[in-house]
Amino acid sequence: MIVAGCLASVGVEAGTLQAHSAATNQSSTAAATAEAEAEEPWSAYVVPAAANMRGSTGSLQHHVPSIPAARPAALPQGPVTIEPGSISHRQGQLAVRLPKGARNLTLQLKRHADFVFGTAYYPEKVAAADLDWYKSMTASMFQGLTPETQFKWFYYERVPGQYQQAKEGLDRDYIQFAQDAGFSLVRGHTLEWSKVDFGPFWAHQLNCSEYVAALKHRVVRDVTLFKGKFQQYDVFNEIIEAPGLLDTCNLWDTAFPDIFKLAHEADPEAQLCINDLGLIEAGNAPKLIRIIKEHLWAHDAPIHCIGIQAHFEYAGINMTHQQQQLDLLATLGLDMFITEFTLFTSWAGPPILPDHPDGWPVSYLDEQTQADMTTQLLKFWFSHLAVKGVFMWGWWDSNIWIPGAGIYTADRRPKLAAAAVRQLLQEELSTNVTAEAPASGWMQFKGFYGEYAYSFVNQAGRQKTGVLHFGRGAARRQSLLQADTS
């Protein structure tokens, strides 16, 4: 028997979503042991339903920056790296019961039980000649998806009441694509983002009471329309540094918690998140904790997860600080997702947006440095108890907001980071078991919790295939006897 690699990605646990759980130290060994003994629930999500509005319209422009030709003389130095912690909480001593006379057994991990590797997805920006390749590569590398722009309110409903075309595009180009690819997590990003860089937006030009009514309508309508299609929502995006009308209209203790309640009522199975920046590379974690405790939990509003943006300037990466901030956020007892991951070197691009007068982020990282740092960060996040997934914010240089930050070049060539990520997910963080002539009865192996594809030849010489789910507790032992139907 050998243990080697297969594609690692993941399903998201559903179960009963709670408004909040007791604060726990996610780094403690005791918590890891207790979690390892708990039963691992497996569940599936469901499908749709149905539900208009008026106001003033605004213009929207989309800017695509290009990477400057001039490269800095030398890249800045200074990342602080640490060894990732234990990943034993994602593994267990598993066992499979084999039929008498079984041979040529293979077990291949297809998805982790509690970790998903995903990406932002933006097919509208891809040329027709590249679209099939873009879809195929996305489906082969990832198992989670976030519409990069299509669901943002200012894009989804540019004119009040005119959202149907965007909704149809999401269903066709995102939801159906994710279902066909077998993705386990599709994120609704974002129900509201007060800071809009692409021009004036009609809803943000309303008075306070009109804005609240429009926002509530948007949330109820669209969470209902996408019930079961999005398993997770960023209810608000970037509210710490750009609270917008939450501050202007003093909505923190009224409309803010109400929006979470309305979203939960519209789809009780969906996870509700706040997605924000500066949480682990800067000092915004305590601010988010205060917002959740004082403005959500104090009003019995549900929140289930924290979305952590991770657009990192290479020289400023400090994993020691990240560890401290992740542990601090984990005391809330909520799932955490790295929702937007990119690496860059400097603000050397043209100053396109008014809030970035110093320029636009670009990446001049050499391929080996990019590969090393990408895999170090992925392993580091995978090792944290509370982190349930990592989403890259694009992966191809022709379709990513930071020029040069993709793991594939514009001409489709895989960079070293692409091979390194694939090796990490398919081998180091995966399980592949083979046994030519296993003894009948229980066969034990150490592996990651999750969904496995199996294959074996039975005593009658027929090949049997299927899927097994290995979880914690009693679910660590699975039987293949029922698969041997001759």
Automatic annotation (TrEMBL):
Belongs to the glycosyl hydrolase 10 (cellulase F) family. The lineage of its organism: Eukaryota, Viridiplantae, Chlorophyta, core chlorophytes, Chlorophyceae. It comes from the Eukaryota. This is GH10 domain-containing protein. Residues 125-424 form the GH10 domain. Pfam families: Glyco_hydro_10 (PF00331). The keyword Hydrolase applies. Transmembrane segments: none annotated. It comes from Tetradesmus obliquus. Keywords: Carbohydrate metabolism, Hydrolase, Polysaccharide degradation.
